[in-house]
Amino acid sequence: MAPMTARFTRRAGLVAGAAFVATASGAHADESTGRGALRDLADARGIRIGAAVASRPLANEPAYRETLAREFSSVTCENVMKPSFVQPAAGTFDFQASDAIVAFATAHGMTVRGHTLVWHQQNPAWLERVAAVGENPADALRDHIFGVVRHYRNDGPAPVPVWDVVNEALTDNGLMRDTLWSRALGPRYLADAFRWAHEADPDSRLFYNDFGAEGMNRKANAVHAMLRDLTRDGVPVHGVGLQMHVGIGAGHTPSVTDLAANIARLRAIGLDVHVTEMDVKLQTGTGGDEARRTDQAQVYADVLGTCLEAGVTSFTLWGFTDAHSWIPGFTGKPDGALPFDTAYEPKPAYHALARVLASD
Ligand code: G3I
């Protein structure tokens, strides 16, 4: 990926030390903008601002609940809508954990991005086996998609208007990833999955979601070509999720020029574009110093500013507090990739997001 070539200094005007003040509404405001929480600012710009949500802190930590409800207008279940959670045994669906998150979202006027129906990770052992031995794998996948999507259409706490139907089906080289589903069903599993999801809920917007395909690189070219072909063939795919797991430093974030160009070509084939999983690694093995946090804020500002200009309609972070991020569990080291620190205090990244949303 190319390093950043342009910056949104006009928009960001970063203020590392800006204080947080309570407003009459009980919401919080960024002193540097004099305006409200992220979700209020985002509403005014016509964009949803979201966060991935984990069940345990949602149940156990008041600060987690309060910050989430105050700042965000969209939620994604970080894990509990995935197959291993919602269909742990064949034909036995368990929506307790995902329904709790959807109910919280609904109670606080937030929308839900459904994540994810078809992936090569977090599948229950029985489903892995069915796919491996070729025991009617198409029926199993179809039944899974129907079971989950129909639950939220008919019986859940609220409809889920957007689904990440297929997640991460391509490699960095732009080839079809070798997965349980590509082996069992061949490349047609993508089109089938979208058709089944559409049949299960014709009102939902259906997304393909992937990482490392945000700028103009080989993988992004392949995502674009694949989605162009699917839409040309009448497959009901409505949008693309750019995950945006990026980092500070050259080469860890696409240039704003590449990001804008990629979003434009995806929109030109009729797709909605969402940012679905943004975080910005400091890559220190620690929570980072002030200089790194300022660089991180600039990355958040650059990406959000580009997305607003390019017509992105939903911007989701993969978590919101450094107290609960997938990165330490993955790398084995602390990082500090999110806009709130471990004590739920806003970092420069938070103020940068607020200022970009507040600028016209
Ligand atoms: O559920 C078990 C629990 O029973 C056990 O006690 C615990 C012990 O480690 O592990 C739990 O499973 C963990 C699971 O998250 C649920 O918490 C897994 O170990 C852990 O590997 C898993 O990580 C998730 C990861 O997807 C799986 O690949 C992360 O939390 C989640 O943030 C991450 O999310 C993905 C998106 O879905 C797709 N895009 C990339 C993104 C980051 O990897």
Structural key phrases:
TIM Barrel; two-stranded antiparallel ribbon; alpha/beta; 360 residues; 8-stranded parallel beta barrel; disordered N terminus; globular; single chain
Which helices and strands appear, and what pairs or packs with what?
Blueprint: H1 9-12, E1 20-22, E2 28-30, H2 38-45, E3 48-53, H3 55-60, H4 62-71, E4 74-77, H5 83-86, H6 96-107, E5 111-118, H7 125-133, H8 137-155, E6 162-167, H9 180-185, H10 189-200, E7 205-210, H11 218-232, E8 239-242, E9 245-247, H12 256-268, E10 272-281, H13 290-310, E11 314-317, H14 326-331, H15 348-358
Helix pairs in contact: 2-15, 7-8, 8-10, 12-13, 13-15
The protein binds ligand G3I.
Word description of this protein:
With 360 residues, this protein is of the alpha/beta class. The chain has 15 helices and eleven strands. The chain has helices at 9-12, 38-45, 55-60, 62-71, 83-86, 96-107, 125-133, 137-155, 180-185, 189-200, 218-232, 256-268, 290-310, 326-331, 348-358, and strands spanning 20-22, 28-30, 48-53, 74-77, 111-118, 162-167, 205-210, 239-242, 245-247, 272-281, 314-317. An eight-stranded parallel beta barrel has the order 3-4-5-6-7-8-10-11, surrounded by six helices. A hairpin with a 5-residue loop joins strand 1 (20-22) and strand 2 (28-30). Mean pLDDT is 91; it is low at 1-27. The protein binds ligand G3I.
CATH overall fold name? TIM Barrel
Q: How much strand?
A: 15-25%
**End-to-end separation:** 29 Å
Query: Could you list the spans in which at least 5 consecutive residues all have pLDDT below 50?
Result: 1-27
